[in-house]
Amino acid sequence: MVDVLTIVVSIIGFIPLYIDLILRLLKERKIEFIVERFYEPTKKPVDSNWGIRILHPNRPIEKCIVLYNNIPLPWWDDDELYYERRFVAMGGGNVRVPKAIQKEGVKIRIQNGKKTLKKVKFEDLHNAKP
């Protein structure tokens, strides 16, 4: 009887350790990064006053897409328009918000392919220097 009780107590004692291990593994899998907005008028790749910057993801983002009220935003590092980009860990990039679609109260959604990584209102983003 003592042996069974010892085993049960040992198993119960390890439950918090298992929970902690699972939580650590889940946190390591989550992609974390910085998102900020910046004011800088430009004509390329689109006529725009505002940009959104994504910085320092802790893991690679294979198919990063930034949606502005469900409209994909163009990346700013080329004169060609494209809407999906790969990030290496600790990398960064900027998208532009075309003047034609800019308005108040818009929600930004950052995705890795079809998986949503972050949702935030444009106005709630930290306003950074260009």
UniProtKB/TrEMBL annotation:
Keywords: Membrane, Transmembrane, Transmembrane helix. The keyword Membrane applies. The chain crosses the membrane at residues 6-26. It comes from the Archaea. This is Uncharacterized protein. The lineage of its organism: Archaea, Methanobacteriati, Methanobacteriota, Stenosarchaea group, Methanomicrobia.
